[in-house]
UniProtKB/TrEMBL annotation:
Gene3D superfamilies membership: dinb family like domain
NCBIfam families given in the database record: maleylpyruvate isomerase family mycothiol-dependent enzyme
A Pfam family per the record: MDMPI_N
Highest classification ranks of the organism: Bacteria, Bacillati, Actinomycetota, Actinomycetes, Micromonosporales
Compositional bias segments (type: Low complexity): 201-212
Name by which UniProt lists this protein: Mycothiol-dependent maleylpyruvate isomerase metal-binding domain-containing protein
Every Mycothiol-dependent maleylpyruvate isomerase metal-binding domain range: 8-151
Location of region: Disordered: 182-212
Species: Actinoplanes palleronii
Amino acid sequence: MSTVLATFRAEADALGHVASRWAPDDWGRPTRCAPWSVRELFAHVHVALAWLPGMLTAPAPEAAQVSAAGYYRPDHRFSPEADAARIRFAQDRAPGLDVREFRAFTADLADRCAAEPPGRVVRTRHGDAMLLDDFLTTRVVELAVHGLDLADALGRPAWLTPPAADLVLGLLFGRPASELPGPPDRLLRQATNREPPSPALTRLNLTPLTLN
């Protein structure tokens, strides 16, 4: 199993574990990702992962052309029209979402990815040809960043796993969390415009990502 896949499995399982303990009232709370509630944001994360099975069954492109950072380039996929469609899709999926199935769903995704050969290339729904590990890196970004959004909406401590912190902060800064100033969850909030940047952060070489 690749390091990226192990990180994906751990971060997804951490979200499923904490979500299984949320009270009914928790799911209706607002998040910073307006207009989504906690349930709708959770549904968005589920949708972001649910593209994987179709990508794995589709023919593999000959070569990767887009990196994990390149996936987050500011093009049509983050246009107002695309954002509006993304919002509606999550809202439509939210009512039927069964959180009890999330951990089994993500474990099955990880198992399916583990069965793929090294160097497997996939094509995203946006048409990008990417290494599977690079696409999984973007799924860890979704889990980690929106995990912070969910934790903050609920007033809970962040459950960001150390491997996910290292992977995402490495993508953003080229260095693991241990080599960066401050708690990893706070650095990730600052780097994704969820908190004002500290003076220490502004001195770092940040690779900006266009995020929803």
